[in-house]
Amino acid sequence: MTRDKQIINYAKGLLKVSLEDGQFSEERAAAVLQSLEKNPPRNYASVLKEYLKLVQREVANSTAAVEHAGDLSPAATEAIKAKFTAHYGRAISVTTRQNDSLIAGIRVRVGCDVYDSSVAGALKELEATLS
């Protein structure tokens, strides 16, 4: 096994330890980091970089980043959370950010998936079909 694969596998093991009921746990991650600090593995910096990358991916896959034009009610936020939790079959948290460049509507990003229901997105798509 190459050194890189060993590092990746080690980091994946650390990520597994950082999950609680399939969800990323900050408390468990803190315990993992404390343990690593006390007993650093070979290639410590590389392991930490790979672990960080996996944690960022895990958090992004569990978060719906909602951009919206205008106001977004708490009821709409809860509806989005329920819809994406059901869609992905895991708990999804929601972060919101107002983005007036969308003109109207919302854009939601969960991990690498983007759901665009904005006027700006529709205009961009129309522009692409006309050119």
From TrEMBL:
GO terms for cellular component: membrane. Its main location: membrane. The keyword Membrane applies. InterPro entries: ATPase_OSCP/dsu. It comes from the Bacteria. Keywords: ATP synthesis, Hydrogen ion transport, Ion transport, Membrane, Transport. It is found in: Membrane. One of its GO terms (molecular function) is proton-transporting ATP synthase activity, rotational mechanism. This is F0F1 ATP synthase subunit delta.
